[in-house]
Amino acid sequence: MISVNDFKTGLTVEVEGDIFTVIDFQHVKPGKGAAFVRSKLKNLRNGNTVERTFRAGETIGRAIIENRGVQYLYASGSDHVFMDNETYDQFELSEKQLEWELNFLKENMTVNIVSYKGEILGINLPTSVELKVVETEPGVKGNTAQGATKSAKLETGHSVQVPLFINEEDILLIDTREGKYISRA
């Protein structure tokens, strides 16, 4: 059990049978009435974000999340096959569970699987990945102010805005949290 007064960003908790991670929290001490904690929580099972208010000092269950290294093997229809790096066991995750992650996932990539009491909740990608540009328009020099960008399609099918000097076949460093271009690799 953990007190809501000890909330930290990234903490995982169990509330009413669901597993949440704390995205944001704020301790509020009104002039009249009891103090409380206003929080924004992300459900790790379905990805929904909810706002909850707890009384100050209230205790809730702490969820111990397990992270293990796994390797992405291949897509099998709408399922995606992963292999545990320690036990070599293979398991599948659905496209629905990996909606955002599929924009950055390549075959043979190592990622972390997130599980709670044996239930697989999803995967954690590295903060940045290297991906190849497969389609983009050639950069045209001209009357541009600073920061001109164009669209580039990556090998995973994800499109990002990149500077004009990026060409096809270039390897780019992409931020997996926001899906944005960082630099050339």
What is the alpha-carbon Rg in Å?
21 Å
Helix content percent band? under 10%
**In percent, how much strand structure appears in the residues?**
over 45%
Shape: flat
Helix/strand-derived class?
mainly beta
End-to-end Cα distance, whole Å, is: 44 Å
CATH class of the largest domain reads: Mainly Beta
Query: How many helices?
Result: 0
Q: Low-confidence parts, pLDDT < 50 over ≥5 residues?
A: none
Q: Major sheet, described briefly?
A: 6 strands, antiparallel
The assigned CATH architecture of the largest domain is: Roll
Strand order of the largest sheet: 1-6-2-3-4-5
Order of helices and strands: EEEEEEEEEEEEEEEE
Q: Average pLDDT value?
A: 89
Beta strand count: 16
CATH topology of the largest domain: SH3 type barrels
Query: How many individual domains?
Result: 3
Domain Elongation factor P C-terminal: 129-184
Protein name: Elongation factor P
Subcellular location: Cytoplasm
Keywords: Cytoplasm, Elongation factor, Protein biosynthesis
